[in-house]
Amino acid sequence: MANLIRRDNRGVSYNPYNQGSEYRWDPFRVVDALLRFDPFRAENSLLPSGGEFAVRFDVKETKDAYLLRADVPGVKEDAVEVSLNGNLLTVSGKREEEHRNEGEQYFALERSHGTFTRSFALPDNVDAEGISADLKHGVLSVQIPKKPEAQPRKIAVGKPAEPNKVKA
Question: 23, 30 in Cβ contact below 8 A?
């Protein structure tokens, strides 16, 4: 409510939604509001509310692996699914809505609930068999190891290759 009432440098109050004599139209504020508009935020969403729970991921590359981390507070371990289809890694899950008792009065309901799904295209140098996921203290960590790189070897010119020796 405090955002609706503004004071000018003389201390005079005016309401930007009231077209009275003290209303001043600021085109820069209008452009700023348009540029900051996010249709996927809950308070000005064009989508039905309560269906999407947005999860943001950090993606990090180390020498040996790729690491995905996301904050998923309130999501249970059995409600998270990590799957791999070809080179597409998909992380999905669901946070349940809290039970509300009859007669309780809420002044704000800002914590979101619902389902989330994120997909990541993996490079060719990952070891798909070694992917692991862990959920601790509301933080989901997915570790994607890299394949051991082939060691370069020197090939002698003009010498025949030695056959592989088979041990009995």
Answer: no
Name residue 91's beta-bridge partners: 82, 118
Please name which of 129, 139, 146 lies closest in space to residue 57, comparing C-alpha atoms. 139
Q: Residue type at 112?
A: S
d(CA 139, CA 71): 5
DSSP character at residue 35: H
Backbone angles phi, psi at 28, to 5 degrees: -70, -35
Phi, psi torsion values for 133, nearest 5 degrees? -135, 145
Distance CA 130, CA 110 (A): 38
* Three-state SS at 59: strand
Rounded to whole angstroms, the Cα distance separating 57 from 140 reads 9
Residue 67's H or E segment, with its range, is strand 65-71
Express each pLDDT in 14-48 by its tens digit: 445 545 545 567 788 778 777 777 665 545 444 44
Token pair of 112, please? Answer: 């979101």
- The number of helices, as runs of H, and strands, as runs of E, in the chain is 1, 9
* pLDDT per residue as tens digits for the range 106-129: 777 777 788 889 999 999 889 999
